[in-house]
Amino acid sequence: MELLRSNLSRVRIPEPTNRIYKEECCISFDTPKSEGGLFVDMNSFLAFGKDFVHWNYEKTGNPVYLHIKENQKLVSEDRPSKKPTLLAIGVEGGFDNNDPVYEQSYEIVILPDYVTLPFPWVELPEKVRLAVDAIIMSVGVEKKEQVAAWTADTKIISKHAMELKQLDNGVIVPPSGWKCEKCDKTDNLWLNLTDGSILCGRRNWDGSGGNDHAVNHYNMTKYPLAVKLGTITADLEAADVYSYDEDASVIDPLLAQHLQHFGIDFSSLQKTEMTTAERELDQNTNFDWNRIQESGQEVEPLFGPGYTGLVNLGNSCYLAATMQVVFSTRGFCSRYYLDQGLKMAFDTAPADPTVDLNTQLTKLAHGLLSDNNYLFPLIQKDDGDASQTTLTAKQEGIPPRMFKSVIAAKHPEFSTMRQQDALEFFLHLIDQVERNNSGNPNFDPARSFKFGIEERLQCSSGKVAYNKRYDYILSLNIPLHKATNKKELEDFQKLKAEKSARGEELSSDEIVRPRVPLMDCLDCFSAPEELHDFYSSALNAKTTAVKTAGLTSFPDYLVLHMRKFVLEAGWVPKKLDVYIDVPDTIDISNMRSKGLQPGEELLPDCAAEDGGLNANEDIVGQLVSMGFQYLHCQKAAISTSNAGVEEAMNWLLNHMNDPDIDEPIGKAQKSVPYIDPSKVDTLISFGFEEEVARKALQASGGDIEKATEWIFNPPPGITNMDTTPSSSGAEVDAALPDGQGRYRLIGLVSHIGTSTHCGHYVAHIYKDGRWVIFNDDKVGVSKNPPIDMGYLYFFERIDG
């Protein structure tokens, strides 16, 4: 007790604003359920597993910890299953699913000798009792973030409800015995509240659900509201009303009146169907292993280093699939596992390692790649016949909560529990990793994905221009006209037309999809493209130019993005239903850019003649790749002082209709804008040099706050001491990974669903001579990997 009293100054009573961690170790995936429990630092309120708590004591000197241990309670096996009613975790009506019940025990532990004191205990100092009570009563940061992100949005009243048009067509809906008017579906049926039609719901990403007849009916008629039959009871608030126009579950205050129009006595109906929210809960918590990609096949589970799954936190499959492939690359494996232990990451981390990207990437790497204990032991499964008793193993997997919290911090999309685009997440990850390693680029694993793209522009004068930009993915269009099964497609279209004329539907076995070779997609990237209304500085007029593109370097890992999602007329998104024939190895040596060739003459550079600020070609190149004209992009970069792509794009969007937008760049364009001397003096008073202060104010439009941010976080290629654009592209390329143009396929991320922001992502990775499927926390041998269905393909360069 005296030892505890002598350390009372290191004990804090939590304030309401303090972040308290008590669900998971901040540098491992230990929890109170782990063998050694969890130790909560009673000064910083960070949590540590038994193998790591002494690291925190050595680093901070904090000796007093609350030890939390959870042990499973024995409960009746036939207890009733409690079904969740809210899309929420840790709140009344949220997830339960009959998970094991645990009871908690507590004790006070004092390091370094691990002296233990019981809790509760009346002899404990009041400060310690108050601190422990506050920790126990508080909701941990981990659960707070889950609850906030998972709790479903409040339904709104539909804008169509109050003045909904209902047809007097004599339709009377019976109280039972419903069936889709277009097929034989008897469940997942929706009653259109305008014309009384009963049609089946959407087909889910995994093939379950309906046949899309209800939504197709809306597309034809534009009748907006439908109610799900089977969810209507005397409590009309529980009925599932959907607005196709608003694309959301909504409230219909006049639902009783709308139902009576079709002769429905809602007071006599019993609930038989799940609502959309309940079905969403069901799909988010019960991904059936046999229905994802390799449906109906027995999959041999895999465990151990490199075969650890990631728990789905709720629509986090995009993150899980991407990180599994990323950590199968040498760069990320070396940087965050082989070359950096958890101790090194923790020692160099800030006071709170939960917000440090380096620490959380290292934690995730060690969780995935080390010989960890995140596997449930073998359990006996008795099917009632002693001769059929089997032993099965279930992988617990690891929940990437802290990593997701760090990588998604302040990001408006990734910080939510909504489904996201795996491509966008990959690029965001690479950007954050590159920034995190900016002080030591040689250790930056993002470099292994980085390569240069050079675009060659030749106008009708015969003169050329070369623009360079850098990227981490090669985004490829899919040329459907290059399909290799055109005869089968023609026959399929005929069959489709014949069945449609007879009112019949195609079976899944009859559907034929185009097959396009990957090499044809790569050829499209390098194919010549005409650019109209190109301003030629040689002709001083608009003309037509031809653009070709090539790579200036071949990265260690080449990521190919298949543009399966396109916009049709009216900006309607559509997913191309196509297979890509991908070989095991590819050779893209012919895609290397040759640069300026002997005999070629460059287009005159107005900027060089006028002797002022030159446009940053990296910024210009990225804008050109988005479809903007080269001259406009140059003006945008110069007008924003090469501050960055975002600033230049904003300038472009605001000046596209300027009368002089197509005029050549002149001295007026390149002249330095007026800078308020008082603002320059203010930045000088902060300790910055005058030249740096002027450059920052010029780049930020005279805003002191933005100028300060610009100085501390300058655009790539600019430093505080040297505020000129980076050196020539050839010198920069010399620092990038490069080699021969031969690659082998090592992994892919495939997507099931109609949009990148819905559906499900799964990773397949080639490991130890076999394909392995990573489906969230489920990992197993892949018998039939869907190579032709990839959304992102990961290739490793073959050298030698």
TrEMBL record:
Domain UBA: residue ranges: 614-655, 674-714
Q: Domain USP, which positions?
A: 308-798
Instruction: Give the EC number.
Output: 3.4.19.12
Annotated GO MF terms: cysteine-type deubiquitinase activity; zinc ion binding
Q: What biological-process terms (Gene Ontology) are attached? A: cell communication; protein deubiquitination; proteolysis; signaling
Going by the record, the broad EC class of this enzyme is hydrolase
UniProt cross-references to Gene3D superfamilies, sorted A to Z:
Cysteine proteinases (3.90.70.10), DNA helicase RuvA subunit, C-terminal domain (1.10.8.10), Zinc/RING finger domain, C3HC4 (zinc finger) (3.30.40.10)
| Keywords on record | Hydrolase, Metal-binding, Protease, Repeat, Thiol protease, Ubl conjugation pathway, Zinc, Zinc-finger
Reactions this protein catalyses: Thiol-dependent hydrolysis of ester, thioester, amide, peptide and isopeptide bonds formed by the C-terminal Gly of ubiquitin (a 76-residue protein attached to proteins as an intracellular targeting signal)
Asked if the record carries the keyword Cytoplasm, the reply is no
Q: What Pfam families does the entry give?
A: UBA (PF00627), UCH (PF00443), zf-UBP (PF02148), zf-UBP_var (PF17807)
Give the residues the record marks as binding Zn(2+): C180, C183, C200, H213
Q: Where is the active site?
A: C317 (nucleophile), H760 (proton acceptor)
Q: UBP-type domain: which residues?
A: 156-266
Q: Which family does it belong to?
A: Belongs to the peptidase C19 family.
Function in brief:
Recognizes and hydrolyzes the peptide bond at the C-terminal Gly of ubiquitin. Involved in the processing of poly-ubiquitin precursors as well as that of ubiquitinated proteins.
What protein am I looking at?
A: Ubiquitin carboxyl-terminal hydrolase
- Give the source species: Sesamum angustifolium
Upper taxonomic lineage: Eukaryota, Viridiplantae, Streptophyta, Embryophyta, Tracheophyta
